[in-house]
Design a protein that fits this description.
Helices cover 71% and strands 0% of the residues. It has 216 residues and is mainly alpha-helical.
Length: 216
């Protein structure tokens, strides 16, 4: 089944836009907290930063899982994957609750400013990884590249985050429900593609065409 390059490029575009928005809003958090505006920082985090972080993480996972890059074939992809998960969990369970407390008390702790600064720095480093693609393949990289996912996967990669952002606006808080379901479906579809992919066979160099000593 052929994959539409336009839909794949659309997912790439959405990933770039949401990642830039995530990083710029993390920098805005630093400015707001440094100028003693915790209520505005909390509002920015819940209304803009959290949805953009979800979209960026989701589209990045789709691009890795739906293409030949994979999650564990290249060190730079694996590094981005690990950093993304760390940032999401740190933002959900550490930074966001601290911002809500600061909005209520009107005080800002230096750890919150440092956390937002680290988030922006990590996102900048991930942008460099996407451009430079450094380092070699991991030891878990299979010899055969996994095939690219069909077009419907990339269509879902665009539609799911858009739906979740709209649903989150209506609900009043981030709601990446359809994105999570899509990632589960993508994982199952990826396993199916890997099973159907042809396995490379070892070739005897002496039996190759033109060999001086062909194997009988």
């Amino acid at each position: 089944m052929k994959t539409s390059p336009r839909w794949r490029q659309t997912v790439v575009w959405l990933h770039v836009v949401s990642s830039v928005a995530w990083m710029s809003q993390a920098l805005a958090l630093v400015v707001l907290m440094s100028t003693a505006a915790p209520s505005m920082a909390d509002r920015l985090d819940s209304v803009l930063l959290a949805p953009m972080a979800n979209v960026s993480a989701f589209t990045g996972l789709v691009l890795a899982g739906a293409t030949a890059w994979g999650y564990f074939r290249h060190w730079w992809v694996l590094t981005k994957f690990a950093l993304t998960l760390i940032q999401l969990y740190a933002g959900i369970f550490l930074l966001s609750p601290a911002l809500r407390d600061s909005a209520e008390t009107g005080t800002v702790a230096w750890a919150q400013i440092a956390g937002a600064s680290l988030m922006a720095s990590a996102l900048s480093f991930q942008a460099w990884l996407s451009i430079a693609k450094p380092w070699k393949k991991t030891p878990w990289s299979a010899a055969a590249k996994p095939p690219t996912a069909p077009t419907w996967v990339f269509v879902a990669g665009v539609g799911a985050p858009v739906f979740d952002v709209v649903a989150g606006i209506l609900a009043g808080y981030p709601l990446p429900a359809l994105s999570l379901v899509t990632l589960i479906v993508l994982g199952l579809e990826r396993r199916r593609r890997r099973r159907r992919a042809p396995r490379p066979t070892a070739r005897n160099p002496r039996s190759a065409p033109g060999s001086l000593n062909p194997t009988p």
